[in-house]
Amino acid sequence: MELSTFLILLIFAVIFISIGFMIPEIKYKIAYYMILMLLFLSVLNIYLSVIYYIQLRNDPGIPGPQGAKGPQGAKGAPGKCSFSEKCGITDARNVILNTANQMYNIPQGCIDKPSLTTCKIKIL
């Protein structure tokens, strides 16, 4: 707890205790201090709950057993190699386009972005 927070709590405690000394009847004074204790316990409970939630919200738990296999996800972007750090390929897109161009003799523009203009296909 920071010093400023401690000082603010100390000021509130002094104010509440001084108000308690101003109450002349003993029954009301006891009721006042009981209400203050309940208020203190409630505020402490809320404070600790928030602090523990902030600390534990990103803390992973104990790993459980593997669940059932789900549906296959969406395909990734073409030419993006997720293992590029491991295999040493920095630009997989150009490697794929060059290989397809050499193997099938198709222009790279047609492979990269197929359309009627890039592939130069004649329509009957």
Concise structural overview:
Helix content is 61%, strand content 0%. It has 124 residues and is an all-alpha fold.
Overall tally of domains: 2
Strand content: under 5%
User: What is the H/E string?
Assistant: HHHHHH
**Number of H- or I-type helical stretches:** 6
The parts where pLDDT drops under 50 for at least 5 residues are none
How is the main sheet built?
none
Shape: rod-shaped
Helix content: 55-70%
The N- and C-terminal alpha carbons lie at a distance of 81 Å
Total number of beta strands: 0
Average pLDDT: 83
Derived from helix and strand composition plus strand pairing, the structural class reads mainly alpha
Write down the Rg.
Answer: 35 Å
What does this protein structure show overall?
The protein contains six helices and no strands. The mean pLDDT is 83. Helix 1 (3-21) runs antiparallel to helix 2 (26-56). It has helices at 3-21, 26-56, 84-87, 92-104, 108-112, 116-119. Helices cover 61% and strands 0% of the residues.
Task: Name the descriptors.
124 residues, mainly alpha, 2 domains
Task: Describe the secondary-structure layout.
Elements: H1 3-21, H2 26-56, H3 84-87, H4 92-104, H5 108-112, H6 116-119
